[in-house]
Specification:
12 helices; alpha+beta; transmembrane; binds adenosine-5'-triphosphate; CdaA_N; YojJ-like (1; Diadenylate cyclase; 261 residues
Length: 261
């Protein structure tokens, strides 16, 4: 007897790819207003299917017209999200890790920040925390962050605790904005980062929103020192680990900055 449904390997791959894409899309829009819009549109689509199944002509044709222009409307409404999503696909560290030219040609640069520099960095952060000096330090990994670097002042200086404390010293020209570190070098200071659009704790201000924002679409890590509370937090993959101790920060940095196996 002929099997009623035949499932090919490609069908399974197809379903898996759609599932991964939907999951990435969910992660991307979760907590944003786009999530509510998607739920609203999906409910409308389900309603339209029911209306069609019940053969309700008038309502069906009105909703059909609406759904007919739906794709165009979606592109217009979600223009910023679609742009961000495409950038995310292109710069996401997982994709970069798999397709990395460095890896292909065996020129992997190793750790973005060496163990010695991690210690200097952490010392500087806790010294800033003690004096309640606000700071925002981004460590770039595979993402180049050129767009953000270009908004600041290029320094290309060795990582040193005194330099970091000087940069963030209140009322100096470079204390506003973020420092970006790449390949063991302080590349730039006074950089402007994208703010997260997600619903975060209302107690978090712009510095913390910027720390989260840059890690949502890139594989960068961000250390943020609160000027108000003196607490130190670390943002990774759009999540903020708040009020962490010196030991935990060193541990997390060592773990996350290790080159991919
Ligand atoms: N988009 C941005 N990119 C980089 N730095 C930013 C950005 N927006 C704000 N900042 C920095 O954050 C500072 C303002 O921080 P704000 O007090 O709003 O944040 P916060 O999260 O409450 O931090 P704190 O706990 O230190 O007060 C600004 O002076 C500026 O240095």
């Amino acid at each position: 007897m002929q099997a009623f449904i035949t499932i090919r390997f490609l069908d399974i791959l197809d379903i898996l790819l759609v599932a991964v894409l939907l999951y990435q899309l969910y992660r991307f829009i979760k907590g944003t207003v786009a999530f509510n819009i998607v739920i609203g549109l999906f409910s409308l689509y389900l309603l339209w299917l029911v209306v069609r199944a019940l053969n309700m002509q008038l309502l069906g044709s009105i909703m059909g017209q609406f759904i007919g222009v739906g794709v165009l409307a979606l592109i217009i409404v979600f223009h910023p999200e679609i742009r961000k999503f495409l950038v995310f696909i292109g710069t996401n560290y997982n994709v970069n890790r798999v397709l990395s030219l460095d890896k292909l040609f065996g020129t992997n640069k190793g750790k973005a920040v060496g163990s010695e520099q991690v210690e200097i960095l952490v010392d500087a952060c806790f010294s800033l925390s003690k004096s309640k000096t606000g700071a925002l330090i981004v460590i770039a990994r595979n993402s180049e962050l050129l767009e953000q670097i270009n908004t600041g002042e290029i320094l290309n200086a060795q990582i040193s605790s005194s330099l970091l404390r000087t940069i963030f010293f209140k009322n100096t020209p470079l204390h506003d904005g973020a420092v970006i570190i790449k390949d063991n070098i302080i590349v730039a200071a006074g950089c402007i980062l994208p703010l997260t659009q997600r619903d975060v704790d209302k107690a978090l201000g712009l510095r913390h929103r910027a720390a989260i924002g840059i890690t949502e679409n890139t594989d960068a890590l961000t250390i943020v020192v609160s000027e108000e509370r003196g607490s130190v937090s670390l943002a990774i993959d759009g999540e903020l680990k708040r009020r962490i101790s010196k030991e935990v920060l060193i541990e997390l940095l060592e773990e996350d900055l290790s080159p991919p196996a």
